[in-house]
Amino acid sequence: MSFSKEKRGIAATIAVVVPLIAILAAALWYASRAWTELAGPPMPASGYVAMALGIGFSLVVGCGLMALLFYSHRHGYDDPFGHDSEPK
User: Fold this and answer.
1) Which tens digits make up the pLDDT trace of 26-83?
2) Helices and strands of the chain, counted as H and E runs
3) How far apart are CA 64 and CA 75, in angstroms?
4) Three-state DSSP class for 36?
């Protein structure tokens, strides 16, 4: 029995996607169980402040690096050496 290329492609996609979804479901189940069963002492207010500062600092650094990337691209710093950034 010979299947068409289209049916083999669909079967290959299903053969990859179904196990990946099963692995994702198992990982989410394990993470939720670990989150609820491994409770420790409550985090102090200074922990929340440190976490907020870390998140804020990470966002500032990420946005700054993206701004530098766009600036570099717009001003031709990413062009190969010896090529003008302006089209002739």
Assistant:
1) 999 999 998 888 877 888 999 999 999 999 999 999 999 999 999 998 887 777 776 5
2) 2, 0
3) 16
4) helix
